[in-house]
Every structure is written in C-alpha cells, then in structure tokens.
Design a protein that fits this description.
The complex is a heterodimer of chains A (115) and B (114). With 115 residues, chain A is mainly beta. Chain A contains no helices and eleven strands. In chain B, strands 2, 4, 5, 6, 9, 10 and 11 form a seven-stranded mixed sheet that branches. Classes of the chains: A mainly beta (115), B mainly beta (114).
C-alpha cells in the first residue's frame, strides 16, 4: 500500500541553526501535504500545508518544499529555538479511494534543540 | 473556544471491558476523526465523519465503533477491549474536507488495556 515515511527518526541541531526535516511520499497522485508539530504529552498542531500545484510555501520561520519529481517533502525551520523541540510529522492526502477525507501520516522525526 | 475536548485523559481497562472515549468540538466543524498513535507507527486513522449521521472507516477500524448524532460530538466506543488497543487516542476536527485546511487535534486519551 501507499505510505509516507521519514528519512531520519531523530535530528539534533544547535539553537540558532536552521533545521531541515525530510519526508518521502509514495503516492504520486497525492494533492495535499501537511506538517504537524507534536510536543510531549500534547496533540499534533498544524504548522503549514502545501498543495501539489506549488513547490514552495513559506510561513513564519518555516518553509515547506515539495519536489514532485522525486516525491519528497521537506520542512525548513529558520533560527531554531528551544521551543521547536518536538516530533514533526508529515501527512499526505491522496485522492480517493485511498484518500479523500483521509490523511496518511508519517512516523515522525524527533527534533532536539541543543543550547 | 475550547477547541477539541477529549475525555478521559487516562484510562485503564481490563481485557473484555467496554468503554467510550468522548470527543466534543465547539468550532462547528463538519469533519471529525479518531486516530490512534503507537510508538514508531505515527498516527493511524480509525474512523471519521464528514457530518452528523455520516461515518466511515479509516485504516484500522476493527474493534471500534463510532456514531455522529450531533455536529459537536463524536464518541469512540470499544466494545470488548484487547491489549492491542493500548494506545494514545486523538480526536480531530476540521471545517470540511481534510484538504481544505488544518486539522485541529485534542490533547489525547491514553488507554491501557491489561
């Protein structure tokens, strides 16, 4: 079946550096992608989304890049702060029948910010 | 607004017991869903609903029932709990389809089945 996966389970960065979290997806027909942040003991929180007709989208300190040729998604966090320490998930929304109103989540990357 | 509220936050069950995880949202969202989160497996969709009176299965529906009698509430029922259902459960909601905007999650319900 289709799946969304992450290249690295844990990423450690120094405070102030930029972080890049990667995600590979396998359904070339997926038309919507989302990044979520999950702090310890809490529910996932929306960060940013991107549609398949775009290759880049920027938010506050975050940028998502979409490369449909190699089915790769990345989340870039500028000037990483201690509050960015969390698990980051990518998710895709494939078209029906596998998608539609369903999101498929990756397994997550733990981002650790070192002071 | 309280957002998405889940109760209870923690629950311990014995094998074979039944229980209901409650989920309520006050954002007038049409779409609601339940996920379970297990270590190393990310979030997996159990059931979802696109509106009152409409429910559908997700990726891992076996052992769980849902109903959507109102827009606000979407309870998840375990009819006969099994140790494999030990997990953290998250309820989520959004305005309409999941690809029209962000999905709002509750704080989670941690369930242990002995």
């Amino acid at each position: 079946g289709e799946s969304v996966g992450l290249h690295l389970p844990t990423l450690s960065v120094q405070e102030g550096d930029n972080s890049i979290i990667n995600c590979a997806y396998s359904n070339s027909a997926s038309d919507y992608f989302i990044w979520y942040k999950q702090e310890s003991g809490k529910g996932p929180q929306f960060i940013i989304d991107i549609r398949s007709n775009m290759d880049k989208r920027q938010g506050q300190r975050v940028t998502v890049l979409l490369n449909k040729t190699v089915k790769h998604l990345s989340l870039q966090i500028a000037a990483t702060q201690p509050g960015d320490s969390a698990v980051y998930f990518c998710a895709e929304n494939p078209p029906p029948p596998g998608g539609g109103n369903k999101l498929t989540f990756g397994t997550g990357t733990q981002l650790k910010v070192e002071l | 607004n309280a957002g998405v509220t889940q109760t209870p936050k923690f629950q311990v069950l014995k094998t074979g017991q039944s229980m209901t995880l409650q989920c309520a949202q006050d954002m007038n969202h049409e779409y609601m869903s339940w996920y379970r989160q297990d270590p190393g497996m990310g979030l997996r969709l159990i059931h979802y609903s696109v509106g009152a009176g409409i429910t559908d299965q997700g990726e891992v529906p076996n052992g769980y029932n849902v109903s959507r009698s109102t827009t606000e509430d979407f309870p998840l029922r375990l009819l006969s709990a099994a140790p494999s259902q030990t997990s953290v459960y998250f309820c989520a909601s959004s305005r309409a389809r999941v690809n029209t905007g962000e999905l709002f999650f509750g704080e989670g319900s941690r369930l242990t089945v002995l």
